[in-house]
Amino acid sequence: MAKILVIDDDQSILDFIQSCLEDEDEYEVVTALDGERGLVECERSSFDLILTDIFMPFRDGLDIIREVSKMYPKTKTIAMTSHYGVGHTDYLKAAEVIGADLNLRKPFSCADLMAAFEQLQIS
Prior knowledge:
Rossmann fold, 5 helices, Response regulatory domain-containing protein
């Protein structure tokens, strides 16, 4: 069973991802409402995959990805954000440069999430 940590400051995103995975018997999902709590969860347990929003209070997703890449190199990471577009820094590309294995632009569907899991061979 793959253990997944989802970090996002939007409870509706946490609920959505949990609902996508709740019928799948192969995932255990843990959630955190900010980056600092997410890092605490990383210290408590090991995870196969971490999905993290980029823009959050206390610790942003880029910090999370840097820390996880350094401390838990076998843990895969997916960066998520809805902040992108013309004239803005491509934060999802930046996340990949610093170590994210994949990125998802919000909003995304359950099918998009499952395709990302398949691409990363998370099961």
